[in-house]
Structure formats: C-alpha cells, structure tokens
Amino acid sequence: MKELNYDVCILGCGPAGFASAMRSYDFGNHVCIVEGNAIGGAGIMDGALTSKTMWELSSNYAIAKRVDRGYRASGLNVDYKKVRDTVIEAAREKQYQMLSQIETFARTKDSTRSITLIKGWGSFTKDKNIIVEKSDNTQVKIIAKDFVIATGSHPRKHPTLPFDGKKIISSDQILNLKKFPKRLLIIGAGIVGCEFATIFANYGKTQVHLLDSQARVIPFEDDDISSYVNKKLSDIDVITHHESTLREVRDEDTHLDVILDSKDGNTKVIAVDVILVSIGRVPTVKRLGLENIGVELNNRGLLVVDNKCKVTDNIYAAGDISGNAALVNVAEMEGRYAAKAIDSEIKFPLNYSNMSTIMFFNPEISAIGLNEKQCQEQKIS
Asked: pTM for the whole thing?
C-alpha cells in the first residue's frame, strides 16, 4: 500500500475542512484533505449555497408575479428543471473556485508548503494514521503529525419514513425533483423547513403543508419573531398544522395519503405528492473508525472537544461534528482555530456569544448574540 506523509491531514472538505486547510497552509504546512463526497459539503451542494440560491430565485419570481404595485408581468412562467440547473451551476462554480485554490497550492518538488486533495473515504487505524478507500477501490495510507476531523453532518432520518429520493426526500435530495410537486408536506418547522416552505410557496406552483409539532414555528426564537414568521408563511398560502403529529403515510398509486393527529384530538387526512423530512441533522462519523483510536461520542452523537478544538492527543475537530451551532460561519471559524491550535498560533479564545445567524424567509430575519429567550434563561434583564 502506498504511504504518503503530511504535516496535517484534514478529513472533510466542507466549510470547516477547507478553512482549516487554508489556514494550515498559511502556517507553512504540507496539508492533505480527504473528501469522499462533493467538495464544499453542506456549505455548497447540499445546504447553504444551493438553498439560498433557490430562495433568491424564488424571491425574484414572487416579486415579478405581484400585482399590487401598479404593474403586471404577462406570460410569467417557471420551469423547475431550469431553476434546478441554475442552482447546480452556481454550486459547481463555487466548487471549482475552491478546487482552483487547492490546485494553486498543490505540491511541487521545491515547495515548502502545499495542499493536496485526495478523493476517498478516510478511516483511522490503530496506529493513528488514516487509510483512504479511493473511488477506484485502491487504498492509500496517510501519515500525518496532526489530524482535523471535519466530516460535517447529514439529514436526520425519520423513524418511520425512510428516504427514497422521490416521494420521501431530505433537504439533500431537493435537487432530485424533476418538477414542482403539486402538493408538498414539510415535516419540521425549524429554519430549514420554514426556508423551503417559503421557497416553494413563492413560486405559487405548489400547495405547501408544514407539519409543526409545537405551537409556533421556529420555537427557539422569541415568540414575537415566531408569530411574525408564521403570519408571513400564511400570507403566501403555506398551510401550517400546529401541534400536530404524523400518524401514518399511505402510498397510493398517484399520491401519498398523510394522516395527522392534532393536540386537540382531531385527525386530518391530506393528500400530497412529496414529503420533505426536515427534522435536523446528525454528525457524519460512520466511516471514521473512531473505535480504533479510543474516541467515543457523547449522548448526542458528537465529538467532545476542548477549548482548543482538540479531541485527543494530535486529533482535532471542527464544524457540525463538534456540536456547536451548525452554521457555515461557525464551521469556518472553528476550522481556522483548529489550524491555529496545531501550530500554537492562538491569540484569543473562541467566543460563541456573538455569532450571527440569518433565516431566509420572507423577508429575511437576522440575529447576532443572545435572543430574548436566552437572556431570560440567564437572568439577564
């Protein structure tokens, strides 16, 4: 088996992994990135960039079809396939920007620092190195002084609705759709669920149902914000089923029959064509071989890190897998911080108290720092 030596090996080329690689390069290291899927991770192809591009396009369309401003657009139409192609093109453009940066810093004979991308799935061995299973079924061994785990997360599975990529989909499979579904049920009224409800409702081609187990959408936000978002969703004809649970889904020939039970004891049956399951994300750890290096996950399935992003000895972690806010900006910050920790370049501790967030609804909602509920929990007036 071929052996390759590096100063730093990073598992995952999403926001955290890519940021960590670039910062490690700054410090004069030979860096290896191991990525088994598309580069960019949930920051690009299966998350932030694609969903926000879809939101931008849908917002433009919603403005164009308004008739309350003294003008009317005629012959307005939209083709989901062309929307999808535009979104994929935007994602690939960003991927090739990242790839161009990586190749710019590729290793040469006389280079004192470099970045190398290896396509494949990396797993730790008992001697704390990495074996990479490449797509051509060959293996390569990566020997490094330090490692950063940045493998991110993936959509949480529903306990009774397995994904099939067609009728039952996750947010990662939105681009699998070939056309606008006539009727869409979104399970989960958090940020992602409400964003996709906004996107599809903006086009006016889909009847959108939103299943909310709580009394309010985005329940972790202040009540007045949640109420405002709920009103704006209603304004664009999203049907929200508050305090309801899914009892059963029946697969009929032409549609899905969905049985919903509400808190007040009523039962409702609705017909939909597609169900989007949006009930959170879970860390991607399956192929890492953590048992070989004696690393265990906590009760939330996350890696436990210290205040320097260290998991153990010479192994660090950054991004969704380490359990802080699942945001691109947080992942990038942690990735750079892990690189600083490896090279003893830390000047200031990580500070999560002033993280910014943005929710792409109609209109957008942004926040920084603690919200009202969090202040109340900490007895801050």
From this structure: 0.93
Least confident of 120-124, 134-138, 289-293: 134-138
Q: Which residues contact 78 (CB under 8 A, 6 or more apart)?
A: 61, 180, 203, 205
Q: CA-CA distance, 253 to 230, in Å (whole number)?
A: 33
pLDDT, one tens digit per residue, over 79-97 is: 999 999 999 999 999 999 9
Instruction: Count CB atoms within 10 A of the CB of residue 159.
Output: 8
Instruction: Provide the H-helix boundaries in 42-150.
Output: 48-64, 80-104
**Cα dist. 148→11, 67, 85, 326, 378 in Å?**
6, 53, 34, 17, 33
Of 54, 56, 75, 52, the residue nearest 65 (C-alpha)? 75
Q: In 73-159, where do the E strands start and end?
A: 114-124, 130-134, 139-149, 153-155
What is the tens place of the pLDDT at every residue in 17-52? 999 999 999 999 999 999 999 999 988 988 889 999
Average pLDDT over every residue of 75-82: 92
Q: Are strands 168-169 and 274-277 parallel, antiparallel or unpaired?
A: parallel
SS3 91: helix
Q: What are phi and psi of 352, to 5 degrees?
A: -95, -5
DSSP letters, 307-375, are TTSEEETTEEE-SGGGTS---HHHHHHHHHHHHHHHTT---S----TT-EEEE-SSS-EEEES--HHHH
Please give the share of the chain, as a percent, with pLDDT higher than 90. 82
Q: Which tokens go with 331? A: 């992942």
Helix (H, G, I), strand (E, B) or coil at 25: helix
Domains in the chain: ranges and CATH: 2-48+85-154+281-350 (3.50.50.60), 157-279 (3.50.50.60)
Distance of CA 334 to the CA centre of its chain: 16
Distance of CA 94 to the CA centre of its chain: 16
At residue 237's C-alpha, the angle toward residues 231 and 241, to 5°, is: 70
**In the chain, what is the greatest distance between 2 CA atoms, to the nearest angstrom?**
73
